[in-house]
Task: inverse folding
């Protein structure tokens, strides 16, 4: 009766990794319980999550081939586009979020167009916007630009509106830090950069005031949601964004945060279920309305007991 913060299945979003093929279910070594899934398996996993009370999934793609211009990101029959259609058939009422980035599809692993060893912000916007429209055409309810290119939210909003997708929302990765917690994800999505790193366009972990500027720019460009990523090492940022902006706020409990709980639990050092729920509650307490977490289905089942 006196609990101040409540964690419920409705707060959770399940990330899923779509890959080519049929009947593919390949576990990610650094993320026990997480798999690379073909579209049919993505649909099965999404439907199970929806039945457990999870209202939404976010889809990432592992294309069959990669190139300099990330053609697989905006292909009409790309892996994420096919996964969107499969989820829509399997769970018609589920909210489908599509991660809108290029790093999983580029041969160099960066989030935009690269020339002369430099990531070109403005030239990348056209491809990112094209990807968002392709995802909307496939049936995505929300697109989630994660490249941290300046102006990406505005470019996507304009492209969606021009294509007749005014109803498709934009969940901006507004505050995304250049973090060591992404390591297992990069294995899962095969998206590690082939040279350098992403510190030129992702944020310095030491910067808090910059986070407010980044979020404000996305609000001005038409974002419908804001996101902070990672979550647990940046709860102060989650709180600051929550206090300053009125938009729905998401926080991404990322792969490294998930993997650390899994690793400690496998060694018998912690109670996995208790620590998992405590962690997710802490993210809610900091101010997140929505939590993207690989624990979504498991947490939802526990919360509905």
Result:
């Amino acid at each position: 009766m006196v609990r101040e913060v409540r964690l419920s299945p409705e707060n959770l979003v399940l990330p899923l990794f779509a890959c080519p093929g049929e009947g593919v279910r390949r576990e990610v070594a650094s993320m026990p319980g997480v798999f690379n899934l073909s579209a049919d398996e993505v649909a099965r996993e999404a439907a199970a999550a929806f039945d457990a009370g999870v209202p939404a999934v976010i889809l990432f793609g592992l294309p069959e081939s990669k190139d300099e211009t990330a053609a697989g990101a905006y292909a009409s029959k790309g892996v994420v586009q096919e996964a969107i259609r499969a989820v829509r058939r399997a769970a018609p009422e589920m909210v489908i979020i599509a991660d809108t980035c290029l790093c999983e599809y580029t041969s160099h692993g960066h989030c935009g167009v690269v020339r002369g060893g430099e990531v070109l912000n403005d030239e990348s916007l056209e491809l990112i916007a094209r990807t968002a429209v392709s995802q909307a055409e496939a049936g995505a309810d929300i697109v989630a630009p994660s490249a941290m290119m300046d102006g990406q939210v505005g470019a996507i909003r304009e492209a969606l509106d021009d294509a007749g997708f005014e109803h498709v929302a934009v969940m901006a990765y507004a505050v995304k830090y250049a973090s060591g917690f992404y390591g297992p994800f990069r294995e899962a999505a095969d998206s590690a950069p082939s040279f350098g790193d992403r510190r030129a366009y992702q944020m310095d972990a030491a910067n808090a005031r910059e986070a407010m500027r980044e979020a404000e720019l996305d609000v001005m460009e038409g974002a419908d949601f804001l996101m902070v990523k990672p979550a647990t090492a940046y709860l102060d940022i989650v709180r600051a964004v929550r206090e300053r902006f009125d938009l729905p706020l998401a926080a991404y409990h990322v792969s490294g945060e998930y993997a650390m709980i899994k690793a400690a639990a496998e060694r018998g050092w912690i109670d996995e279920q208790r620590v998992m729920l405590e962690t997710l509650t802490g993210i809610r307490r900091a101010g997140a309305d929505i939590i993207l977490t690989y624990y979504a289905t498991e947490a939802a089942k526990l919360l509905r007991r």
In short: The first strand starts at residue 12 and ends at 18. The chain has a mean pLDDT of 92. The first helix runs from residue 39 to 52.
